[in-house]
């Protein structure tokens, strides 16, 4: 498998009938069976939840789980789109370990979900003797309009808190990185979604002015695996 690549679990193809209650999606399988799958995405999924679209679901590994499938991907007109918000942290961590991201290379220690700040956790903590610890907060980005990837797709008080925690870490002699993982292949630039959450956009610009680093990468994905593809420019103008 390619450097930095993350394999998909077993995938089953179907057609999206509807997404409802935020975390449930009804899917018709190729044999006509209709199943309800867990939709691991709390956002609006604007532009990537159209009924009638091809989707891929994975069987749940826990036989006791109420919903026996998980929604993983949807096929939109210009790209496959990764739905599962649990994927980006794993993918970015794998890419860091495989030295795929130049800005985050050279760290020997990598921990995930590390308690930090005011009742919060940072997605990835990097450490290396003789270097400042590096906090990496990863956000899943699925909203793309006119080849412009944007985050968030819904107002996010939690995301705002994460920016504030990253900013505070700077005063404690730590690096802080906001990493936007664009889980699709049809964007050329990243920007905050000011029309959806202007407070988040303003906060992102402020913390980046003060020293927080913003990185955005898209992915290359197929039905076997996905990997980081290329860095995209961050338009914070």
Describe the structure.
α2 packs parallel to α3 (about 200-210). With about 240 residues, the protein is α+β, with helices and mostly antiparallel strands. The protein has a seven-stranded mixed β-sheet with strand order 1-16-15-13-10-9-8. It has a five-stranded mixed beta barrel with strand order 2-3-4-6-5. It is globular, with a radius of gyration of 18 Å. The protein has helices at about 85-95, 155-170, 200-210; strands at about 5, 10-20, 25-30, 35-40, 55-60, 70-75, 80, 110-115, 120-125, 135-140, 145, 150, 175-180, 190, 215-220, 225-230.
- Major sheet: arrangement of strands: 1-16-15-13-10-9-8
Number of helices: 3
Low-confidence blocks of residues: none
Order of helices and strands: EEEEEEEHEEEEEHEEHEE
Radius of gyration, in Å, reads 18 Å
Distance between the termini: 38 Å
Question: Which labels suit this protein?
Answer:
five-stranded mixed barrel; seven-stranded mixed β-sheet; 237 residues; alpha+beta
Concise summary:
The protein has helices at 87-97, 157-170, 198-209, and strands at residues 6-7, 12-20, 24-29, 34-38, 54-59, 69-76, 79-82, 109-116, 120-127, 134-141, 143-145, 148-151, 175-182, 189-192, 213-221, 225-231.
Write the layout of secondary structure elements.
Blueprint: E1 6-7, E2 12-20, E3 24-29, E4 34-38, E5 54-59, E6 69-76, E7 79-82, H1 87-97, E8 109-116, E9 120-127, E10 134-141, E11 143-145, E12 148-151, H2 157-170, E13 175-182, E14 189-192, H3 198-209, E15 213-221, E16 225-231
Parallel strand pairs: 4-6, 10-13, 12-14, 13-15
Antiparallel strand pairs: 1-16, 2-3, 2-5, 3-4, 5-6, 6-7, 8-9, 9-10, 11-12, 15-16
Helix pairs in contact: 2-3
